[in-house]
Fold these 4 entries.
Entry 1:
Amino acid sequence: MHHPEALEPIVGFLRGIGMEIEYGERAHNGFLPGVNIHGGVIWVDPETLLGPGDLLHEAGHMIVVPRRYWSRLGTDLQEDIETLLREETGPDGSPDPILTMAARQGEFMSQAWSYAVVQHLNLPMDCLFFPGSYKYDQYEGTHPMLAWLEQGTHIGPAALARAGMTGFSGMFAYVENNGLPAFPRMSRWTLD
């Protein structure tokens, strides 16, 4: 595992914001090795987890969904969120805007949120952005996802800002302002 020393601080942080984290074999067969979600509980297996940032990333998909739906989230987060979105479409046919954002921008929001957590915990960025993470296994220098976040061109921070979790930053700060401190400083860690 890349940076195993970062696992316990991350687990402690996630539990501190109200997420259920358990260790065991239910972590197997998830979207990422060593981490899986069953009924809103995130399971982790340190023996097969590639990096603790993968745990953060999966948690990041959950935090952009209202807490009342967490127990309905499982291994296929995207499908679960799409199902919620279909169920919560208003009688006039208008989709729930929060679930729409989670369904359409959740991947980017999760990436940005994970970056903010790693900074907040003062952990090495390599625990999140390691070779093979985010499907980038061959690159020179800085991991491409980390570069986009640091350059202010990644769209995840703007989506988090639109959700009221942080302020606008990077190139988006020139266009929008919600009065909150700029990303990566978070005003709140969960949607609600």
Note: The two ends are 32 Å apart (CA to CA).
Entry 2:
Amino acid sequence: MLVIEDEVGIVDFLERGLRAHGFTVRSALDGIRGTEMALSEDVDLVVLDVMLPGRDGHEVLADIRRAKPMLPVIMLTARGEVDDRIAGLDAGAADYVTKPFSLSELAARIRAQLRMAAQGATTAVSGGGIEADLLTRDVRYHGVPVALSTTEFELLIYLLRNQSRVLSREQLLRAVWGFEHDPGTNLVDVYIGYLRRKLRQAGSGREAPIITVRSVGYRLDARD
């Protein structure tokens, strides 16, 4: 994602915090450079401050809407007035966050926007012999239907969207359950076990493509 914000301290705070939540973050310190990066680089979401040197956030937003109408933009501002929020949303912002803000809440809003963007772009994800439909919530493993609970489905989708990447237990706990790090819980391991068992049953004994990475977490093997 791209953060366009002119206050260096806030940029540092956002970069560190959002990376800890599992996001890849780039940043620009003014509206001109921010516009260039948003339009020329492959970014999946923009966090955009309203008050910027060079070009203000509303001008940047207008350019993004013209060139990349499907790119989600979350406006970030110290202005808390209702009229300001309405103006930003009417101009095409996907969401509006007022400073000061909770980093966990911002991360949750970002995840929500990325989910909606992904669902708008495609209704299916696949990898490792697994096919999942985001609308019908149908899952198949090598062509055989697999019945999953809501939580199992959300966990599988997150693994599929990050296939071949090693995901820590903390990342999975935040992404699927919305929890911060809790060393006392084994929720992730329990649900990985559920997924593996159901996929193995559907695959007539074929092992599930969910690989344990010792002392770290899990990885979905994308090879069919």
Note: The chain is about 45% helix and 20% strand.
Entry 3:
Amino acid sequence: MILDTHETLASDASSRTAFSVAAADFFESPLLTPWTDPESGVTSRLLTPVGTPAEQARVAPLQQSFYYVNPSLHITPDGNARYWFYCAFPPANSAHSGRTLAVAEFATGIIRHYPETAFTEASPMLDHETGEIYWANEQGIWRRTASPDDSPQRVAAFPPAITRNRPVRRYATHLTLSPDRRALNIDAGIGPDNPVGQAWLDDGRIEIWQTLQHTYNHGQFNPSPCHPGLLLLAQENCVDQKTGEVRYKDNRLWLVRRGDTRGLYPVYPDSLSSLVGSSYRPVASNSHLETPHAEVRTDPRQMHGHEWWSSDGDYIYYIHYQTGIERTPIATAGTSDARPELVWPHRTVSHAHASPCGNYIVLDALPPDAPDTHHVRFVNLRSRRAIDIVSRMPSPPAAFRPYHLHPHPQFCGPRGDYICYTLIRPEGGADVAFVRVSELVAATA
């Protein structure tokens, strides 16, 4: 039943009687439908999947979880759960600027779609404390609450003296809050320039720390107050806008600290080639390109990607393609003592995320040359056992491919009690999905 142009309910029953679904049992919401992986037996809850009674609350053909480092599940002070997610309406644009936001109110069974939240890149981010959602587009950085009575507020934008008639491709790949909650990270794209820095939330002022020429993106504030003003950045492959030629990254992981005279500096300043043996496979397949192909990389630093901070800010985690999930301590980053630690071996891993306690990992594997082996997996580092959440993930249908449709699993909720991800269904659809971490821990004890 449609309530208005933005709001739908899970069922007629929920429109007559609102029920209270606390955070501990929001899985009982009529917006969610159980789905069990036929091989592992793990049960996920799907948000308004097609072909179920919950489908009538669906607000978009493509509903997608946030990028794996961006919070999206809000637990309110009274214990209710709200979940923000991406919406796409093929063939409207692409992952760069063709998606909008919606929020699922599990306590009332209502989903609200906000079409005015069109965003670029993977910029949306939930503030766990306030429940406000932030996003960025070409016009600036914006904020709103989940209330239908609220409206977007622009919190920051580049002044004309910075843009100089040039379009802003992005303000941030994905927004993160500074540990003192006073600023958001900036890793922007303006013409050929890539300014990095922060946007102050009190007055909207954008402070540029450094302007880079090579493409550096995926900026993330270190979450710890022990490391203020520290951004993790990724050196990205560049595509020549005239020829289409790809200039590959030569060292993925970089740091920049506000006021540091070193400017931008690498996490690993020295080659790591001496640390790998004869069995090492220095071949990378870039599935983000329109014409993916394998490239031989001579230095392991060129095989790093999809990085994130530990919840305490003491470690940098990342994917070492063809090897597994690694991490390195911030204490030695940027020095000749920087060394990788293999957290979990997995040759085909694509993305991963660590639980706040650091005892668990969730990952997806999407090797482009072996689509029949795509999966989402939970890893218990304490028991050294793993179980598949999704044993065989189909490739996305052609209409959905422009929207960067990867599972991107992440631990969600302020304590990481749940995992959310995007499930690609065999019949061609895609759904946001949830699974309880406690059930996965029990299955891998």
Note: Residues 144 and 270 are 44 Å apart (CA to CA).
Entry 4:
Amino acid sequence: MTTAAATFDPEIDQHVGAIRESEAGGMRGRNLWTAVFFAAGFLGIAATLPIVLHSSRSPSIATVLALLVAYAAASQARFEVGTGLFLPTGLIFVPMLFLLPLGWVPAAICAGLLLGSSTDLLRRGLPLERILIVPLNSWYSIGPVVVLAIAGERAPTLSDWPLYVAALAAQCSVDYGIQAPHQWFVYGLRFSVAARYMSWAFLVEAALAPVGLLVALVAYEHPVALTFALPLVALLFIFARERQVRIDHALELSHAYRGTALLLGDVVEADDAYTGLHSRDVVSLVLAVCDELGVEGGARRDAEFAALLHDVGKIKIPAEIINKPGKLTDEEFEVIKTHTVEGERLLSQVGGLLGSVGHIVRSCHEDWDGTGYPDGLSAEEIPLVARIVRCCDAFSAMTTDRSYRKALPASQAVAELRRCSGSDFDPAVVDALTGVVA
């Protein structure tokens, strides 16, 4: 089962703060109303299923309570994955499908999650409306219940494995079908990003489902066998805690890198106001082009840093050359060309993530036809991010006032990009940029 939360990843780092802040406080606006909508839908279905799905099963009160408590315990092992949480509740959910009347299962899932969430609500003093998240996160149970109900309520058996695969597929489909629209509407998270991170959780769910089935095979005749799953739940709880600590540290490191990049940008701006402001303008263009080209994950993060720091090496260039109002001499231009290599050297001294961006910064003045500098790379030899920064850098420079000329109109700058497409610039990047600024 997956739920709304967060994890460290460059693609969704911007969403992490908003999601965690939302989870720590009250629900309001679209977050509240979408939760109310999905909760009402789930509760309506959960109340209807026991009426329309007749069952011959009659579990004891002790079995029902044991399932609820075990499910609540499993829900405390929370693995942050992308923008969601993976809970290893499948270890108990699968036995529920065979020990309880099928129509009861969604309500039991909701009750188990509520029991598990009550400790957080009380301990952390969260607003009462956070309870609405419980039915939202219980939707996944509807899919398997419907599939198994269509096949007819029966005892667990290994020969029915195709049916169980279909039930698992239904579980994942319903889970994604509820969580992805919710995260898009509330946090603006794209469906493709949600799919990428939820798919990881679904793979783990598929790995744990056979273990849950083995527990169900034994517990169907001997309910006390439910206790067999508890040591594994306890182990997963420990792993989840350790993972949470690592994710927190990774997020702190990510923020530190971004802060360092911004600080270096401020240093450049203090040394040369045009270069600093120009670099910040290039960042927004670069990220828009990345979205147009479908550049995601680490490459998009590298693009952001490279756009911000592509001119950082200019702090090593004499100010009289940088600020010269007229045309540069050949000798002066040769000095200017060293700023890409100087930028790589400066970033390599910082090391870590910014150090790895250094080779991109080095290539941000390479031309598509191989006539650029410093290495004369051409076409696909040039990193894609560097090609994007190169094109956006040129557009920003043409449409900005300089000491020796006035800014060009955007239409004229676009025409110049098209004229140089295939020589200075990657044609695909030019098409993407012109689509962004059109």
Note: Strands lie at 2-4, 79-81, 84-86.
